[in-house]
Amino acid sequence: MNQTHRQRTATDPSPHGASGTFPEGFLWGTAFAANQVEGGFDQGGKGLSQADVIPFRKTGDYVDITSLMKATDAQIAEAIATPGAAGYPKRSASDFYNRWEGDVELFAELGMKALRMSIAWSRIFPNGDDAAPNEEGLLFYERLFTRLRERGIEPVVTMSHYEMPLHLVTEYGGWSNRAVVGFFETYAKTILTRYRGLVRYWLTFNEINTTLIEPYTGGGIIEREPQDGVDPRQAGYQALHHQFVASALATKAAREIAPDAQVGCMLARMAHYPATSAPADIVRAQWDNNMNLFHTDVQVRGRYSGTVRRFWRDTGIHVAMEPGDEALLAANTVDFISFSYYMSLVSSVSPELYGATGGNLFSTIKNPHLQTTEWGWHLDPEGLRYVLNDLWDRYQVPLFIVENGLGATDVLEGTGADRAVHDEYRIDYFRQHLQQVREAIEDGVDLLGYTSWGGLDIVSASTSQMTKRYGVIYVDLDDEGAGSGDRIRKDSFHWYRELIASNGATLEALPATGA
């Protein structure tokens, strides 16, 4: 663990509030990514990002969404040749780039204590390898962070959230190329310097483990025919090592440039349960969990785990490391762990014996004890308590839930000023998950905050659709980008506002309507 993180002592105040409540200073808020909310893809000197070339892809239920989050050379070339935003929803998204001032006022009305967001790398360095940053892009975020602070909202900022400059993808091969580490370090130092004093919580890479599951989205690796005799996972693991090195360099830079700031890693965390009590299934679930957590092992413990090193040996994967890499990782561990939680998974040595639920990113096994969303994701509030305790017991560093929410097809009712969305299902989702969060805090977990995904309705990362809605604020746009763009408070907005105002004390008392 990094020596700069101050440990609690027996004389410190408890990290928890009174029994049954949330800690004093708990960071309640919402979260989104620049590529899913900003739009303005051709404004303010921004360059194309890897997300700007992913088209809208309509899907049915229980689709394997990892099959959607890919890009070939031909698809990218077609996208580059296509002007405007038609067919590419992330180019316009929710138009936060042009509407941010009004949106921040809505966030203040909600009573948010934190906004977890990201900087679009290609808004700062349009090509990624530019000699100098884009001042207009730097100024945009400076104004945004300043306004957030004026409204009492803490920016929690991700440096890279599925939006690396497209030039680094097409010309360098994404994160599989070691040269990208240097470009990222320059970018990180630039934003750390510019926003010193404005941003106190930094995350380096969003859901860093997705580089192995979705190599294009997580690592900027274009889908191509595999080379004979080369494990197709080779490029992903090499890219991931480069990201670990880049994260350590960014953490090191933060300690030098902004020593009062805290730096966290970010993991897509989904607990793996064994399908049966058979020892083989239990060992398989343990292995799956360890393969998920080796990412945090590197960033919190400062070293690769034995589990992943054995996997490399068994599969013939060779990860090239430069002299000094391992020492760099060991010396620059993070201050806290942030993570997303949407679902739990099921592991078995014989997965073919079980029914499929393709919406779950890392598993194909349906858990018979759990319901699923309309996109096939397991609903498992108790799994969040399990995950919090598991991470706390393993690492003993503060935790931060920076993504949790329900994607659903909301219905806008009424007209004019009477428009409303009655999303009691989302309120119920929040209530059940936050009850388990409160239980974990009572268990002794040190939790910094909770930022629900995604505040505003945003364009989906996987399908690029707007109709898979997560926000407590409805955005009047459809999958083709048509609509007024108006912001409409859902019932969940009113419910969450009262919950934040009470610091969670009214979790059970508030009515399901949020009225």
Number of domains: 1
Number of strands: 12
Question: What do we call the CATH homologous superfamily?
Answer: Glycosidases
Order of helices and strands: EHHHEHHEHHEHHHEEHHHEEHEHEEEH
Given the structure, what is the number of helices?
Answer: 16
Mean pLDDT: 91
Query: Residue share in helices?
Result: 25-40%
Properties at a glance:
TIM Barrel, disordered N terminus, 11% strand, two-stranded parallel ribbon, 16 helices, 515 residues, alpha/beta
Structure description:
By secondary structure, the protein is an alpha/beta fold. The chain has a single domain, classed as TIM Barrel (Alpha-Beta Barrel), CATH 3.20.20.80. Helix content is 37%, strand content 11%. β9, α15 and β10 form a beta-alpha-beta unit. α10 crosses α13 and α14 packs parallel to α15. The N terminus is likely disordered.
Short description:
By secondary structure, the protein is an alpha/beta fold. The protein has 16 helices and twelve strands.
Break the fold down into its secondary structure elements and pairings.
Layout: E1 27-31, H1 34-37, H2 73-81, H3 96-110, E2 114-118, H4 121-124, H5 135-150, E3 154-160, H6 166-172, H7 179-194, E4 201-205, H8 210-213, H9 215-219, H10 234-257, E5 262-268, E6 272-274, H11 279-301, H12 306-315, H13 325-331, E7 336-340, E8 345-347, H14 381-395, E9 399-403, H15 424-443, E10 447-453, E11 473-475, E12 487-489, H16 491-501
Parallel strand pairs: 1-2, 1-10, 2-3, 3-4, 4-5, 5-7, 6-8, 7-9, 9-10
Antiparallel strand pairs: 11-12
Helix pairs in contact: 3-5, 7-10, 10-13, 14-15
